[in-house]
Design brief:
The protein is α/β, with parallel strands linked by helices and 480 residues long. It has 14 helices and seven strands. Helices cover 49% and strands 8% of the residues.
């Protein structure tokens, strides 16, 4: 073999070796990319696995047993049942005399000093003892009888005409309808339980269909009052809003609450999109809105919003549970947030003036936003983007510092919403549009009446009862 042939063979072998090396490098690059992808998926899976009510928006009921057991209970030196040392006791107060149904006067028969008979002279300050019980409850049924009378002259039989202004069209009166709506819509008894309770407690026999029909009538009767409450909420200077899902016949809808110091209004919408919320829930932008960072609420001007710091705290807790720089910066965010709530607590107790609060919050704001900027620049998956979004809401983070009546959290709306969330869990939502309206309107009446100091049963009875032509419907706004 000559030198030229040997060189060609060496060149071919070198080319083949280079090709194999290139293929190996490409394969290694693919493996590295796959490993990086799997690392990201693993980190995301671990984050999802570690989510609980303390570092996310998940409800406490979704926490695993391990987290519930880890909660440390305060131990007492001498644990015992009942009220502990220092607990302020409660005692039953006697009813005032005007609320007592029956009075039994007891007089001594003779003097315990000289044993002479004593006259029965009432004492100005007698010692009072009271017993409260229930008298047998019974329904009150009124019957209208249209008699037919035979004319003594011509023998013609004439029956009394049906007068709808005298004889009611319905089989049940306004107070009974109000009681049914109270049991199913406020105390959340099932229709079957309501039927049984009415039969055993009041002797009223009613079918399931009658209960459903009464719910429809009560829902229609309170609609004007609910609409008035909605207008009050829309026009309020400060309002809280929160949303969740609602099921109607298996279809997923959007449940929202708008709460102020005066009213609480619930509304079930087809969806939670921006256009739907703007047109059907709020009408137009008025006042300051306290909420979370929901994308659908971005139509509200940032300078007229307050982002919920309770949501941010849970987000910062999730940062602090990560390894590396994100965890350390997350802990730093929690420290500044603790300082924020400490100042706010002292302000609410009257220990700080508004001017002092503004002064002390200024450096907290600068430092906290600086930490968020550092996290944005760190490029941490699942953290940097979230921090960038928080900074995009920068103008809405500190409204509570300078504006009166604004809270730093949206706890008010979340507490109000919990009532209908529990309804949804018990009944899996509603099965019809009529049932959806009944749930939202009844809970609106219940929560708003509580704030207004109204008796729910009396209000429902007033709504269901007859009204003169042209008379205004009962209002939930007692102050107005």
């Amino acid at each position: 073999m000559d030198d030229a042939s040997e060189i060609e063979e060496l060149r071919a072998a070198l080319a083949a070796e280079q090709a194999r090396a290139a293929a190996a490098e490409a394969r290694a690059a693919q493996l590295e990319s796959r490993v990086a992808q799997l690392d990201k998926q693993l980190a995301k899976a671990l984050e999802l696995l570690g989510r609980n009510s303390g570092n996310s928006n998940n409800p406490p009921s979704s926490d695993p047993p391990s987290r519930k057991k880890s909660k440390k209970k305060k131990r007492l030196k001498n644990p015992r049942r009942g009220g502990q040392k220092g607990h302020t006791g409660s005692h039953r107060q006697l009813l005032p005399p005007e609320q007592v149904s029956e009075v039994v006067d007891l007089f001594p028969s003779e003097c315990t000093s000289c044993w002479q008979p004593l006259p029965q002279v009432p004492d100005e300050f007698p010692r009072r003892h009271q017993l409260t019980d229930l008298k047998p409850l019974a329904a009150h049924t009124t019957e209208w009888r249209r008699h037919a009378v035979v004319c003594p002259r011509c023998g013609y039989r004439t029956r009394a005409e049906y007068d709808p202004d005298v004889i009611p069209r319905l089989s049940f009166g306004p107070r009974l309808m109000a009681v049914v709506a109270l049991l199913t819509g406020v105390y959340h008894l099932s229709r079957r339980q309501t039927v049984r309770l009415l039969r055993e407690l009041l002797g009223v026999r009613m079918s399931l269909g009658s209960v459903s029909a009464i719910e429809k009538r009560v829902s229609d009767a309170v609609e004007p009052a609910v609409d008035e409450a909605m207008e009050s909420a829309r026009g309020a200077a400060v309002k809280h809003a929160d949303g969740t899902t609602w099921l109607r016949g298996g279809s997923l809808l959007s449940l929202w609450v708008v709460a102020t110091t005066a009213v609480t209004v619930f509304k079930v919408l087809p969806n939670g999109q921006k256009a739907t919320l703007r047109d059907e829930l709020f009408g137009r932008v008025r006042g300051i809105l306290v909420s979370d960072r929901a994308t659908a609420l971005k139509f509200w001007a940032m300078e007229r919003r307050q982002i919920c710091w309770a949501h941010l705290v849970r987000k910062f807790v999730s940062y602090s549970e990560r390894a590396g720089p994100a965890g350390k910066l997350g802990e730093e965010l929690l420290e500044y947030t603790s300082l924020l709530f400490a100042y706010w607590s002292r302000f609410r107790k009257g220990q700080l003036s508004r001017e002092t609060l503004v002064e002390r919050m200024a450096p907290v704001r600068l430092q906290l936003e600086a930490v968020l900027q550092r996290l944005v620049g760190a490029g941490v998956l699942g953290v940097s983007g979230s921090c960038a979004d928080i900074l995009a809401h920068r103008e809405a983070l500190w409204t509570f510092v300078e504006r009166s009546g604004v809270e730093p959290t949206n706890n008010h709306a979340e507490r109000e919403l919990r009532g209908l969330v529990m309804w949804r869990r018990r009944s899996f939502g509603s099965q019809s549009e009529r049932g959806t309206h009944f749930a939202a309107r009844k809970m609106t009446v219940a929560h708003t009446a509580r704030k207004q100091g109204l008796e729910i049963l009396g209000f429902l009875e007033a709504c269901c009862g007859p009204r003169p032509a042209g008379a205004a419907a009962p209002s939930l706004l007692a102050a107005a």
